[in-house]
């Protein structure tokens, strides 16, 4: 996977950082109720408001309407044959839908690349230190493909999560993973730099994504906590397809 080579700048310290990375991919925030009401200028009680002149009368008069069409009888021999019912219009293809939780949920806090990530616990199969796995490197693979390992989950393919989540304008830094997160019911596992426990996530506090033609694994961001929510089901599908940049149409 190609990355632009440039000097890594420091991460922004304010919630605007996630906006700079993914702002154009997120749904527009809903306007506050106060912003929806326009301010009305105060009127001077002594100022008279001129009444609008009455509008034009309706032009739909009998004397200017076109005459009604007179039915004309056509001989049966001149009628075109009826070829059956018309075909229904083609259905517009509908893209995949991404359900959103309605209640607070627990997520594992993961550090990978330049981001803090939130992985819903319901989609995880476990965690373990990277050095406790017997990893068999596979030759002729990219640096982010760390190899194959046997675990309690079975044989898994180990992917460096930093390569997936690092924005294209920043340089991917390999060899930083120290922990492994297993996806539930998947042949993939994700290597990350650190795990920082769990956190309860309120869906109302997230800024979600509806359109996911790019980066389908990016479900939304928590601007207050400076964290990115992962859609692990979509990420699993992207890894199976071999492309985590584009969404599945």
Q: Please, could you describe this protein's structure?
A:
The protein has 249 residues and is mainly β. The protein has a domain of 145 residues: CheA-289, Domain 4 (OB fold (Dihydrolipoamide Acetyltransferase, E2P)). The protein is built from 4 helices and 12 strands, in the order ααββββββαββββββα. The strands form 2 sheets. Strands 9-1-2-12-11-10 form a 6-stranded mixed beta sheet. The protein has a 6-stranded mixed beta sheet with strand order 3-7-8-6-5-4. Strand 7 and strand 8 form a beta hairpin. The longest helix has 10 residues. It is globular. The relative contact order is 0.19. The N terminus is likely disordered.
Q: How many helices in DSSP terms?
A: 4
Order of helices and strands: HHEEEEEEHEEEEEEH
Strand-pairing-aware structural class: mainly beta
- CATH hierarchy: architecture of the domain at 97-241: Beta Barrel
Q: What Rg is obtained from the alpha carbons, in whole angstroms?
A: 30 Å
Shape: globular
Kindly report how far apart the N and C termini lie. 22 Å
Low-confidence stretches: 1-15, 45-69
- Could you name the CATH topology of the domain at 97-241? OB fold (Dihydrolipoamide Acetyltransferase, E2P)
By DSSP, the count of extended strands is: 12
- Mind telling me the CATH class of the domain at 97-241? Mainly Beta
């Amino acid at each position: 996977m190609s990355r632009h080579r440039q000097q890594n700048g420091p991460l922004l310290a304010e919630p605007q950082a996630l906006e700079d990375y993914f702002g154009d991919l997120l749904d527009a925030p809903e306007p506050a109720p106060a912003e929806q009401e326009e301010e009305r200028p105060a009127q001077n009680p002594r100022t008279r408001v001129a009444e609008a002149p009455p509008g034009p009368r309706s032009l739909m008069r009998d004397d200017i309407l076109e005459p009604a069409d007179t039915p004309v009888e056509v001989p049966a021999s001149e009628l075109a044959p009826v070829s059956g019912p018309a075909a229904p219009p083609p259905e517009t293809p509908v893209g995949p839908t991404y359900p959103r939780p309605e209640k607070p949920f627990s997520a594992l806090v993961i550090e990978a690349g330049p981001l803090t990530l939130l992985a819903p616990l319901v989609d995880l199969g476990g965690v373990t230190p990277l050095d406790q796995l017997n990893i068999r490197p596979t030759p002729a693979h990219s640096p982010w493909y760390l190899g194959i390992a046997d675990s309690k989950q079975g044989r898994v393919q180990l992917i460096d999560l930093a390569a997936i989540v690092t924005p294209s304008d920043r340089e991917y830094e390999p060899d930083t993973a120290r922990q492994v997160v297993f996806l539930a019911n998947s042949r993939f596992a994700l290597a990350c730099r650190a795990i920082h426990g769990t956190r309860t996530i309120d869906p109302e506090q997230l800024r979600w994504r509806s359109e996911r033609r790019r980066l389908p694994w990016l479900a939304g961001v928590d601007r207050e906590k400076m964290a990115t929510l992962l859609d692990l089901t979509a990420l699993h599908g992207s890894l199976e397809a071999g492309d985590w940049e584009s969404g599945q149409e």
